[in-house]
Specification:
heterodimer, A: five-stranded antiparallel sheet, 20 helices, 8 strands, elongated, B: 72% helix
Chain lengths: 511, 198
């Protein structure tokens, strides 16, 4: 009797033989030692191969996977989506558009005395730009206003063609959108990743209208880059939120109207307001550059509360915050993000923030050739006269953590910047969906730093943004992802205040 | 049908068909649910074909992007897992074609350093396993892409021959012969590396 062939052994092992074939092979094997050995060898090889080809990136990776896919779909080719998905026009019909109208009314009413506005209130002149950006939908992560970032040169999105990538797909031409030339010879997946980064740096303008008006778009973008409140980005992000967006926008509106910024007088920051809410105080301060000049249009955010303000021409801001310690983030175009912990006590607290310029020559921080600050009038700042100064509690910890990402490859640092920007924006808007975005961005970073020294710090970011998302928009899915992320962090983090905080959050999220 | 598919599917077939129809109608939440159901399976395929977490991440994500773009053409009622696996393997083939270096070459040392990290991580007793895995990985990497693919789908995903045929776009008979050749080839390459006679 002939021995079983390799193919027969292979198929027998896989249970691919049926009926008579299987019986015959079985009978032969029963009486053939060499064939049994060959079969055992095959099985052993398979068993050894399996772990060699497997890798578990961990729960955190899969937690954010779907949102990253979503993110990529939007970034890659919004126009390819089925009719009802990722509807670019949705944003303009959403409650947000209505909220905007309400916000504009607030500006009219309070405009005479308001120094600072929350991010939800957009100057009416940006409205037209929203329309412009509708023609040229920007990727959610448009880098124009990314603080602390060196703005990369505009580049077309290159989606390398993969003719056979999707079985049953209409055609390769339909599948692959290549506004720019496909980068032949580039590693395809890598170039996809870079394309994504590029699309964030300078969103593609697939619409012919936008393409013909490229100069106009560029002009508007330039203007927007100088604007603290990037309407284009908001519009794009609003669009990108898609189905869940509308719900979150309602929440955002609720936030902005339920907690309007207190009216502030330029001459008297201590205004005759209604008595402070119990345990709440005003946190005012000023933001300056290294040369002591005020920085206008800086985004000041209490990231733990999701409250935000924009500095006025004199670099001043005021926020309302409960007594206690809060994380204060300040971001402005051309400057590195500043993060510090401030302690709010008494009726009013003062914070002074000095922003360091972005290093544009050596991204690793060797050179400090900052971009020109957005030209605010160089007026002398009236000092905020009273109130205990905000105590600066070891902001160093945060700064060190921030710098800790510096040795990473450019691609990862770009992801970190993106994640920080999204997180700050989410905090500024108090929007759950934006925190989802930020969490997804941190998840991307996490996937790249796992096993390294920054894993825990990155997990902290994932956990915090997941928690904030749940806090801003509670729901079972957000609760679950927050619990997962917090648990993943808590089980790995060293003892300390941050871990304790995460444990407290965990207690809050747990049903 | 195949164990891997069962592992990833939490709901029943009807539920999945409903999600697919909704996704075809543009419901991104439904598609998101499908992504969550199959993300692990597709990541496994992607990692097996790239042996690099960074590439696997890109490949897995891109697979779902392509799936979304082509979802309208998917015939509801067919198993989704092989369809997704087919996108993933085709993307991997494209990656092989376009990449000058072999895919086992890590893109960034940092990522490579973190490669062994994982929830299944068991530092104790890894050394011996690592050595063997290293040889196997290296030998596997020298195989032709279609041999890598068929082995990955069978060994990692435990797909049936029918599912592999769907995923690879070839007849079942071809799957059978290709898989057998791939196994024999792997054995030979491994023997070359470890100095054994095959």
């Amino acid at each position: 009797m002939n021995h079983l062939t390799d193919e027969q052994l292979s198929a027998y092992m896989d249970g691919a033989f049926r009926g008579r074939d299987a019986e015959e092979a079985g009978r032969h094997l029963a009486g053939c030692q060499p064939c049994r050995e060959a079969l055992a060898e095959l099985a052993e090889q398979d068993a050894a191969l399996k772990p060699a080809l497997k890798h578990d990136p961990g729960e955190a990776y899969f937690e954010s996977f779907a949102s990253r896919v979503e993110d990529r779909i939007r970034s890659a080719a919004p126009s390819r989506a089925p009719a009802a998905g990722f509807d670019l026009g949705r944003w303009f019909r959403s409650p947000r558009a209505l909220a905007w109208a309400g916000g504009a009314a607030v500006v009219v009413v309070g405009g005479g005395i308001a120094l600072m506005t929350t991010r939800e209130v957009t100057p009416p002149d940006l409205r037209a730009r929203d329309g412009m950006t509708q023609m040229a939908p920007a990727a959610p992560g448009e880098a124009k206003t990314e603080p602390g970032a060196v703005v990369p040169p505009p580049a077309a999105t290159a989606t390398p063609s993969m003719d056979d990538a999707a079985p049953g797909a209409p055609s390769s031409g339909d599948l692959t959108e290549s506004p720019g030339a496909a980068q032949e010879g580039m590693p395809i997946v890598t170039s996809e990743r870079e394309a994504l980064a590029k699309s964030r740096a300078d969103a593609p303008a697939p619409s012919p209208v936008a393409a013909t008006g490229a100069d106009e778009v560029a002009r508007v973008r330039k203007k927007l880059a100088a604007q603290p409140m990037d309407a284009a980005k908001r519009a794009a992000t609003g669009q990108a939120l898609g189905a869940t967006g509308a719900r979150e926008e309602s929440a955002a509106r609720e936030y902005s109207f339920a907690q309007p910024p207190p009216a502030r007088s330029p001459s008297a920051p201590r205004t005759q307001e209604a008595p402070d809410l119990e345990g709440e105080a005003r946190l005012c301060g000023d933001v300056r550059d290294a040369a002591g000049r005020p920085v206008a249009g800086a985004q000041v955010t209490l990231t733990d509360l999701g409250r935000a303000a924009t500095t006025d021409a004199a670099g001043r801001f005021c926020l309302r915050a409960p007594h206690g310690e809060h994380a204060l983030s300040v971001m402005a175009v051309g400057y590195r993000e500043s993060r510090q912990v401030v302690r709010v006590a008494g009726a009013e607290a003062i914070a002074r923030v000095t922003l360091a310029p972005v290093a544009v020559l050596d991204p690793r921080g060797g050179s400090v050739a900052g971009r020109a600050p957005a030209g605010p009038p160089k007026t002398a700042l009236p000092t905020v006269p009273t109130g205990p100064p905000a105590t600066q509690v070891p902001g160093d910890a945060m700064d060190q953590a921030k710098d800790a990402y510096a040795p990473l490859p450019d691609t990862v640092r770009g992801m970190v910047r993106e994640a920080r920007r999204l997180e700050a924006e989410a905090a500024a808007r108090g929007s759950a969906a934006h925190f989802d975005f930020a969490a997804a961005a941190w998840g991307r970073v996490l996937a790249r730093v796992m096993g390294g020294p920054l894993e825990i710090e990155t997990r902290r970011h994932v956990a915090e943004t997941r928690y904030r998302a749940w806090e801003a928009g509670p729901g079972s899915r957000r609760a679950r992802t927050a619990i997962e992320a917090l648990t993943a962090y808590v089980t790995r983090a060293p003892a300390g205040a941050e871990r304790d905080q995460a444990i407290r959050w965990l207690d809050r999220v747990r049903p | 049908m195949e164990p891997a598919s069962r592992r990833t599917q939490t709901g029943d077939f009807e539920e999945e068909a409903g999600l697919l129809r909704a996704a075809q109608g543009g419901d991104q939440a439904a598609f998101g649910e499908l992504v969550r159901r199959y993300q692990r399976a597709i990541y496994r395929v992607a990692y097996a074909l790239t042996r690099n977490p960074s590439d696997a991440d890109d490949l897995a994500q891109e697979t779902f992007v392509r799936a979304w773009q082509a979802i309208g053409r998917f015939r509801v009622g067919e198993p989704l897992h092989p369809w997704l696996a087919r996108i993933a393997t085709n993307l991997a083939f494209s990656l092989f074609r376009h990449r000058k270096r072999r895919p086992e070459t890590p893109l960034e040392p940092l990522v490579e350093a973190g490669q062994q990290w994982g929830a299944e991580d068991d530092p104790a007793g890894r050394v011996e396993e690592d050595e063997r895995s290293g040889h196997l990985q290296a030998a596997f990497a020298t195989l032709k892409p279609e041999h890598q693919a068929v082995l990955a789908l069978r060994v990692v995903e435990e797909m049936s021959y029918e599912a592999m045929a769907a995923a690879l776009g070839v007849p079942v008979g071809t799957v059978m012969s290709r898989l057998s050749r791939a196994r024999a080839e792997l054995k030979a390459r491994l023997a070359e590396r470890t100095g054994e006679r095959s």
